[in-house]
Design goal:
Layout lengths: L13 H5 L15 E7 L5 E7 L1 H5 L3 E5 L1 H7 L30 E2 L5 E7 L2 H10 L1 E6 L6 H5 L15 E8 L1 H10 L2 E9 L11 E7 L4 E6 L4 H12 L7 E4 L15 H13 L3 E4 L2 H7 L6 E9 L5 E13 L9 H7 L10 E10 L13 H19 L3 H8 L8 E2 L5 E2 L4 H11 L5 H10 L3 E10 L7 E8 L5 E5 L8 H13 L6 E4 L17 H28 L6 E4 L2 E4 L5 E3 H8 L11 E8 L7 E11 L4 E12 L6 H21 L29 E6 L18 H18 L10 H9 L1
């Protein structure tokens, strides 16, 4: 079978997943492996007066119990973060050290106090229960706005007496404020983008094998970016050259940004393996996931959209307070700042955009990237503001959008905040989506719902995404002597189907059967560089690197084919995997070339058939689309269901339509989850996590999946990469919440309601 670009090849990885043959972290337990368990704080904020590990250490099977005293004795540093932003005045932000184990204070429920290592996980858990500690509880604050107020009950860090980490801005404040003052109308919306627990199917975990003779570390884990982990751990924590550490990820059961973060347990596991000179593994249970995984969103925003007398947008002014949690996480400052403003203004022509962000510390789990990472927040606040403006003015929200979209003739369009959108036809996309969703038939469906005692609403969201992350990626193609070609990439799949789609590119460009392409990823030994996945970047970057490597390999192979066929290179033609002397029937194929390339008579340096490419993108691609949701409400109970959902997305070049549709559907489910079901709740007095299990935190299930109609818009191609892809991974989480919010407001006749749209919230609104 020769599946190529544009074909719906079934996922090759599914066979091993569905038959239980996946290779996940906890499937791997080397001989003599020890197991780590973290002792965690039951208090949200407290001074640590004393820790007694005697009873735990005496338990048979316990090998070590570490506290911060051990970390200090080793002279190791804090949990690292990625490069920080600066304050609006250019000064450094406040980034207090986050130690892997409590140093003097704990600052959220679940903060680490001690790390127990034993011969089995069961023994380590028993020993963890024997670690005793004395905590002097302190006042807790769990709301970011309250944390920054003069009346805040407590300061989390001495370095931040006002609980402020930073104040950051982008845009021209004066121009935006002048436009607001001169506007014929200003639409204002205040909203809270609710906090989310990420909950991937596979929990976080890490395994470290240390070789004392070679002073070499092999680290494997349920992680998203092996090269980033290697740099963070080797250089920033253990002060060793990266060449002395290999990091590899096998099958990873979901990430969604939560496994793109270096956490305390990663440091402690590597440390324990080094100290004990034995393999050490730590794997979180689901409760630890709720208590310690980096969480998503949690931004409180005031957005003001200025319009002139002709209803054209003239300015957007956004002020956000973001809850960073108790510490700054790996990407914690980048998400609400640069990632959010990368698409601020969306698909609209807005001359002046200004964004100011305040970062606050609270006694909660640190926040970080969650699928979309900043782009969903930007889309939600803007689409809510557009709908509020239409309601204020009594005009049709679709017409208001059409009037203000960036026209195709303006492409490439330089937005107010400096980013350049190279392609898009947002009005045509909206019109096509409205037809696809049969919006003309909505009144009849609403009447049918009413006849059943239900309330029906329809909502629309236009979104703009940006492919973010490091702009460089690597790929290598290499034939073995049997003609099997392996593609190795520095990016990584955690469920995005790279093992299927990337070989499709190879099969298309080299003309080899799809089944003869092998795939290698997630290993610092496999490629010289790589930047994992995140920001919908993988296909634009790794796909382009594969394409370029394939082009180079064909040219190299032409020269080798010419030698075999005793012809001039210029006389060699290539098509469908066959090299032919022009005008003759003399041919060779890849298998012939591969066999010849491994001829033992050739010098060792000339053996083999391979090529590689390191690709740096020509520009940021901007996936975009229009999603339309129809919801139905039972007024007796407040229960909401998403009855129909239409997605029309511009992703550029589509490699595998079935895979892309699956990505969109998964994103829609997570968007539905945030909008309707999921909500992280902390007790405002104690800081205890009240939604700390699946009994208290509602995850979307199969029955919550709406009737979906997913289609692609391919009439606005991008030139930002040779592969022509714009990215598809985060569309549903970006467009889903504002589309559903719009539908609910339409159903209830209200301007804005904060997520999540729980039955209780809707029922109370209906009673009012």
């Amino acid at each position: 079978m020769r599946y190529g670009i544009g074909q719906s090849a079934t996922r090759v990885e599914d066979k091993r997943f569905l038959t239980g043959n996946g290779r996940y972290l906890d499937d791997i337990t080397p001989s003599g492996c020890l197991h780590g368990v973290m002792v965690r704080s039951p208090a949200a904020h407290a001074r640590v007066r004393d820790i007694d590990t005697t009873a735990a250490s005496d338990l048979p099977g316990v090998v070590a119990v570490y506290t911060d005293r051990d970390w200090q004795a080793a002279g190791l540093g804090p949990v690292p973060t990625r490069p920080a932003i600066t304050n609006m005045d250019g000064s450094p932000i406040c980034n207090p050290a986050r130690w892997p184990l409590a140093r003097g204070r704990v600052r959220h429920v679940g903060d680490g106090i001690a790390f127990v290592v034993a011969t089995s996980r069961a023994v380590a858990r028993d020993a963890a229960d024997l670690v005793s500690f004395d905590l002097e509880e302190l006042p807790a604050v769990i709301d970011s706005v309250a944390a920054l107020s003069p009346e805040a009950p407590a300061a989390l860090h001495e370095e931040a007496p006002d609980n402020r980490s930073f104040t950051w801005e982008k845009g021209e404040r004066t121009a935006a404020e002048d436009a607001l003052a001169a506007a014929a109308h200003v639409a204002e919306v205040r909203l809270h983008n609710n906090r989310i627990v990420i909950n991937p199917m596979e929990t976080r975990g890490i395994l470290c094998i240390y070789d004392p003779e070679q002073d070499f570390y092999t680290v494997s884990g349920s992680i998203q970016n092996v090269f980033m982990y290697r740099t963070m751990l080797a250089e920033k924590v253990f002060d060793i050259p990266v060449e002395r550490m290999r990091v590899v990820a096998y099958d990873v059961g979901g990430g969604f940004g939560g496994k793109n973060q270096v956490q305390p347990e990663h440091l402690l596991t590597v440390f324990a393996a080094r100290e004990l000179k034995r393999p050490v593994k730590w794997v979180a249970d689901r409760t630890e996931g709720f208590l310690t995984d980096g969480q998503g969103r949690d931004q409180q925003t005031r957005a003001r959209l200025a319009l002139d007398a002709d209803h054209r947008f003239t300015a957007l002014h956004v002020e956000t307070t973001v809850d960073l949690g108790a510490y700054i996480s790996t990407n914690g400052t980048a998400v609400p700042t640069g990632a959010t403003t990368s698409v601020m203004g969306g698909p609209y022509d807005i001359p002046h955009v200004y964004n100011i962000v305040h970062g606050a510390f609270t006694n909660t789990v640190p926040t970080d990237a969650y699928r979309g990472a900043g782009r969903p927040e930007a889309c939600f606040l803007l689409e809510r503001a557009v709908d509020v403006a239409a309601a204020d003015l009594g005009i049709d929200a679709m017409e208001l959008r059409r009037l203000n979209y960036i026209p195709p003739a303006a492409m490439p369009y330089r937005a107010s905040l400096g980013h350049t959108i190279d392609s898009g036809d947002f009005r045509a996309l909206l019109d096509r989506a409205l037809e696809q969703a049969d919006v003309a038939g909505f009144p009849a469906r609403a009447a049918e719902s009413e006849a059943r005692g239900r309330i029906r609403g329809l909502g629309v969201a236009s979104y703009l995404e940006a492919t973010l992350g490091v702009p460089t990626e690597y790929a290598r193609l290499e034939f073995d002597r049997e003609g099997i070609v392996t593609v190795a990439v520095g990016t990584q799949s955690n469920g995005q189907s790279h093992e299927t789609t990337f070989p499709q590119i190879v099969a298309e460009k080299l003309g080899v059967p799809f089944g003869q392409v092998r795939f290698r990823q997630s290993d610092t030994d496999a490629t010289p560089l790589g930047h994992g996945h995140g920001g919908s970047r993988s296909l634009q970057l790794a796909g382009s690197a594969i394409l370029n490597a394939a082009t180079k390999l064909v040219e190299k192979a032409k020269a080798q084919a010419a030698d075999l066929l005793e012809a001039a290179t210029d006389d060699i033609d290539f098509a469908d995997g066959i090299f032919r002397v022009v005008g003759t029937d003399r041919t060779v194929n890849w298998a012939d070339l591969a066999a010849a390339a491994f001829d033992s008579g050739r010098p060792a340096a000339e053996r083999g058939l391979s090529d590689e490419d390191t690709y740096t993108k020509d520009g940021t691609a901007y996936p975009n689309g229009c999603h339309i949701a129809e919801i139905e409400i039972d007024p007796a109970t407040g229960l909401l269901s998403v009855a129909r959902y239409t997605a029309l997305d511009d992703f550029g070049q589509i490699i595998n339509p079935m895979v892309v549709a699956g990505q969109v559907m998964g994103g829609i489910m997570q968007g539905v989850g945030q909008a309707v079901l999921e909500h992280t709740v902390y007790d405002p007095e104690s800081g205890q996590l009240l939604s700390g299990s699946f009994m208290d935190y509602c995850m979307p299930r199969a029955l919550d999946l709406p009737q979906t109609d997913i289609a692609f818009f391919e009439d606005a191609p991008t030139q930002t990469s040779p592969i022509g892809a714009k990215g598809c991974g985060e569309a549903g989480t970006i467009a889903g919440p504002p589309a559903i919010a719009s539908a609910i407001c339409n159903a209830l006749g209200l301007k804005h309601i904060d997520m999540p749209y729980t039955p209780e919230k809707i029922w109370r609104l209906l009673q009012q």
